[in-house]
Structure formats: structure tokens, C-alpha cells
Amino acid sequence: MNLKNYFKIFTTIVLVSLTLSSCIKSDRNKSTLTGWSFNDPRFGNFTAPVDYRGQRTPPGMILIEGGTFTMGHVQDDVMFDWNTTPTRVQIRSFYMDEAEVTNKEYSFYLEFISRVFPQSDTMDINKRIYQAALPDTLVWRDKLGSTGSLSQTYLRHPAFADYPVVGVSWLQAVDYCKWRTDRVNERILMDKGILKPLFAEDSISVEGENHFVTETYLKNPYLLFNGDSSIYGRGIPVKKTLVKKSSGFFGKRTTRKSRKGEDLTNTVVDTILQDTTSIVVGGQKLPKEPKKEKFTGRQVTLSDGLLVPNYRLPTEAEWEYAAKADIENREYNNITNRKKYTWNGKYTRDITKRYKGDMMANFKQGKGDYSGLAGWSSDGADITAQIKTYKPNAFGLYNMAGNVSEWVADIYRPIIDSEANDFNYFRGTYFMKTFIDSLGKVVVIDYNNIQLDTLQNGQIVPNGLPGQIKYVPITKDDAFMRYNYQKANNIDADDGDLASNKYFYKDEDNAELIPRMYNSPQSKIEVDEQGRILKKYDVTNTRRTLIDNKLRVYKGGSWKDRSYWLDPAQRRYLPEYAATDYIGFRCAMDRLGSTSISRDKQAHFVKRR
User: Fold this and answer.
1) For helices 170-191 and 124-133, what crossing angle results, to 10°?
2) Within a 10 A sphere around the Cβ of 375, how many other Cβ atoms?
3) Could you give the CA distance from residue 251 to residue 544 in angstroms, rounded to a whole number?
4) pLDDT for the residue numbered 508
5) Which among 195, 202, 391, 402 is placed 20 to 30 Å from 214, CA to CA?
6) pTM of the full predicted structure?
7) Are residues 335 and 422 in the same domain?
């Protein structure tokens, strides 16, 4: 075959590719079921995400491709907890932070809170908001130890900037996830020019309820900043029509906007992009002076696919699936080897030739031994270590064993009930809805309607921040005749006690009167006549357990734990308001659409002969 034939073949391939791509593009711009065109002024400008190219990996995260796995222990239950019985579940694909949230990142969050909600003697609410976000730095104190100096240095000193944040309760971790969602989406809108850089505008005050909140923006962009449209730059362009009419072969030609209901037969129609910078007439762009302080185009909606889903804590099943990373032991659709740790092998030291003998994680190696001998530190740290100090697992996640344990989203119960649900298992569901006032308007939290909650440890925290949407539990009417749920609070659903059986499950009105198997001690918080808060321990002798509906699971071993707790299946629990010097957290996010970014079919499926 000569060079001329090669050129003909190459030209043919290019032409076919261009034809196919143009067909695909035209199909995206048209409804395949009705024939109507999307984003076309002649057809009403109905929008559709014709340019969507899939979900992008969020900053600092890794895609965890979902699949089935056996959740539970692979070693002897020497603690006799009987709470890690193996069960098979399916996990959807999701994103997860490649490492724990660090002191530097959490300090950024604290600085943002202090600037948006400045503390003063006249703003007691702002003090509550900031104090609710502060980690408990006193977790480093020990009645028989000399570690109190870490209470002053660990969070804020630059020497610990890249160390995992600790002293954070489950409630604080959840609040951080909400804040992170808003900051990432705010940056996306700023990069697109839709939202102005709020802190750079002298005429805009980012304070109190005036700050960007994703959910508020999606409900109504003009609920933000009391409806001040000057915070917005330029919206997504919207096509309009220009009508051209002629009064003869060489007659006068006019150009104007089309009227509603006008017959456009035998007229020449051009489009104008409402982007304030140019118009398109006869296929040529003409300059147009931008209008100051006037928002043009349209606002971003969920249908555009620009904004990221909510950041959140991973569920217990997701965390364990990501930590085990059985993907490296997969041969086609089978697992060839079960894993005791987050890495292959039954030892805590590296067995590869180059790094042989190195510790694989940061954990307590024996009584009084947190790091090994001086000059030969086994794991390189006596307390926590910098993130990404040790090798990642097969998914690319760091420190899923050792360094710090991590909060997950679930309420603790001894049994994982995969008989009730074996798909994306999660215990802790509480169904909420947007609060609508008597005028039918969405209620946004402000300083007049903000609600303060008193936790069991006596701490007073805000239930939502000014500027956020106010939510309330769904009612019986909302769940009437539904098959998938019947009430708002499903935290204790099917957990084995009397309140979860079919006779009492729907009786929310008398829920407090029903005898419960999980009736842990409840401290009492009272307020005296002078307004002082009185804290009292529960000293009744009728309590049979420490488990209740405020108990959250934390997973993974820490710098304080022996190697037994490095097993990803191990599970422990603490109250959601509690904090320690060995528990941190990392965020997760739903994967939307396909389960993976790309799929190598050769590696996943057997060839057919």
C-alpha cells in the first residue's frame, strides 16, 4: 500500500469522525422523544445540560469505584464484642479525601467563621457560633502526663499544620462538611464569573447572614444578601431572537426583537447571546457596551451540573470498603485473598525489597512504646504524624490504618442488619423538609429565628447558621401511604427493641413512653432562676446499656491503639458531642452518574472465545 492510499484512508477516517461528532452534538441539542430543540428561542428556550461532560473529581479527593464486599472481621474477636459479624453489602461509587482533614485546613474554617460572624459584646450569638466550631484542645491533658503544652500548640502552630486535626466532635465534623460544600461551590461560581469575589468587593459586606450558602442559592439566588443582585456578575448566556424583515427586493430592512406569538414564517432569524459583550448579526459579532450592576443571562441551577454535591462524612460501610481496598486482590469478578489490614499481608512492616522492615502505619507497638528506640524510630511518630507519611492503600488513600481514628456518619448498633438493607447500608436516617412560612416562602435562618440547642455535656450550640435554609422533620402526612418510609426519625429502625416493632414503630407521639432496650444514662441540663445552667449526672440504677441514639461510630486504629484496631472491620463508638486526642475525620461525596471515570474492559471481563 503506497502513501497515496494511506492518505485516502486517513482522510476518510477523519471525515467519518467529524460526521459522527456533529451528529452526537446535534442529538444533545434536541429532545429525542419530541423533536424539540433545547436552548433554542424558537422552542421556548427550554434548558438542558447539552455540554455536560461528567462529574469532575473534587480537589483533594479520589474516586472510589463501588462494588460488593464482605463487611466485617477477618480475624478472631478477642474483645468478644460480637459487633463485626461478616455480612455482604453493595457500595455505590463515591469520592473520598485522600487524607485526613489537617490543622491548616480546619484553621482556615475557624478564621472564616470568626470573620463572617465577628465576636463582640453585643453579639452573643456570634460567640456561640465560633465556640461551637472550636476543637476541644484540652483533650491533650492527662492527669498523670506532661502533654498539656500540646493544648496550646497542636492546633495552631505551623509545626503541626499538616497533621490531622483532633479534638473535633462528630457534630463539628458535620458542620465542617457543610461549610466546605459552600466554599467549593462559591469558588466555582466565581471562576465562571457568575458570582463576584465577595471579599474583594468594597461595596459588599460578607458578615452575619450575608455569606454564600449553596442550598440557599439553589432555592432562590436572591435569598442571599437580602436580595442584593450586585453580588452577581454575568449569568449563563440565554439566547434571544432577532427578526429581520424586508419590504422588497431592494427595500428597507429592519431588525428588532420578536414579539410574543408572532408568526416568523418567511423571516430571517438571527440569535443574540445575552452576555452583554457582543451580539451576533448575520454571523458577525458586533461589540456591545456592558451594563453596569445589571445581572444578565440566568442563574445556575442543579440541572447545569456545575455545582458539586454535598460534602459529608463517609458511612461506616463506605469507610470500611475504601479502607480494605480489595480491588488489588481481584481477579475478574472474584477476590483471591482476604486482607487483615489496609495492605496485603499479615504483618505491620513492609515486605517489599526497597522498603523492607519499614512500618506501614503509625500505631502503638507495645506497652510504653509509641515510636521505638531513639535513632531507630519504628513508625516515625510518638503522637500523630503528618498526613501522607506512609504508603497509600490500593485506592490511593492515606492513613486508613493508624495515625488517627476517624468519625463516620452512622449511629452505633451492635448488628449490621443487611437483611433489612444490603445496598449502601447506613443507620442514622432522619428525613427533613424545607420550612415554609404562612406566606408560602422558604424560611432562611437569621438572628431573629436562630435556634440554640443544649447538648448533653451542657454546651450550647446553634442549630444552623444565619443564611442557611431552615429545615424541619417531615410529618405523618408527608409520609402517608409511602412504602419506603413512614416517619422522619429512622435512627433506631429495626434495631431489635420494642419501639422498632410493627406495633410501635409509627407511634411517634408516644415514643418516649415506649420501653427501650438501648436506654443509656441521660444527663440532665437545667436552668435556674438566675439563668445559670445546672448540669446533673444520671444516677438512676435502671440503665442497662451505654448505647443510645446519640452514639456515633468511629473507625480505624490511631497512634494510641495496638495493631488489633488497625483492622478496618473493627468498630467503636462515642457520643456525637465528644472529642478525643486520637479521633479525626475526612470527607466524602456522592459519585453521580457512571460508577467510574473510565473502564478498561480488557482488565475486568473475560474474553469470549
Assistant:
1) 100
2) 5
3) 95
4) 64
5) 202
6) 0.86
7) yes
> pLDDT (tens digit, 9 = 90+) per residue, 140-194?
999 999 988 999 999 999 999 999 999 999 999 999 999 999 999 999 999 999 9
Answer for the pair 468, 444: CB distance below 8 angstroms, yes or no. yes
- pLDDT single digits (tens) 379-426: 889 999 999 999 999 999 999 999 999 999 999 999 888 778 899 999
284 lies in the same domain as 405 = no
| Residue 384 and residue 278 in one domain | no
SS3 at position 10? helix
- pLDDT-derived band at 463, boundaries 50, 70, 90: very high
Any idea what the Cα angle at residue 46 is, between residues 41 and 48, rounded to 5°?
120
Residue 509 pLDDT > 80: no
- Strand 268-273 and strand 253-257: the pairing is unpaired
Predicted pLDDT of residue 5: 66
Cα gap 321→242, rounded to integer Å: 56
Cβ–Cβ < 8 Å for 186, 172 = no
Q: What is the DSSP letter of 79?
A: T
Cα Rg of the chain (Å, integer): 29
The whole domain housing 186 covers 58-117+159-192+306-428+554-592
**Is the four-CA dihedral 550, 552, 558, 564 of positive or negative sign?**
positive
Residue 359 lies in a domain: yes
17 alpha-carbon distance from chain centroid = 39
Q: Is 552 exposed, middle or buried (0-12, 13-18, 19+ CB in 10 A)?
A: buried
Same domain flag for 110 and 22: no
CA distances from 360 to 43, 106, 581 (A): 61, 26, 21
- Helix H or strand E encompassing 125: helix 124-133
Q: Is residue 389 part of a domain?
A: yes
In the block, cell 409509627 appears at 506
Model pLDDT for residues 125-136, shown as the tens digit of each residue: 999 999 999 999
Q: Is residue 371 part of a domain?
A: yes
Question: In sequence order, what are the beta bridge partners of 166?
Answer: none
Cell 492546633 sits at which residue?
Answer: 155
User: Could you give the 3-state DSSP secondary structure of residue 253?
Assistant: strand
pLDDT in the model for residue 8: 66
Cell numbers linked to 76 = 478472631
- Same domain flag for 359 and 320: yes
Residue 167 CA to residue 583 CA, distance in Å, equals 7
Hey, what's the cell of 507?
407511634
Indicate which CATH number applies to the domain containing 74.
Answer: 3.90.1580.10
d(CA 590, CA 569): 22
Tens-place pLDDT, residues 11-68: 777 665 655 555 555 567 888 888 898 888 888 888 887 778 889 999 999 999 999 9
**Which amino acid makes up residue 282?**
G
Q: Is 490 helix (H, G, I), strand (E, B) or coil?
A: coil
The model's confidence at residue 535, banded by pLDDT at 50, 70 and 90, is confident
The CA-atom distances, in angstroms, between 267 and each of 41, 246, 249 are: 15, 8, 14
Cell of 516: 427501650
- Say yes or no to pLDDT of 363 above 50: yes
- CA separation, residue 417 to residues 391, 427, 443 (Å): 33, 9, 37
Residue 101 and residue 585 in contact, taking contact as beta carbons nearer than 8 Å: yes
Residue 139 falls within a domain, yes or no? no
HSE-up of residue 449 (Cα within 13 Å, Cβ side): 12
Q: Are residues 186 and 64 part of one domain? A: yes
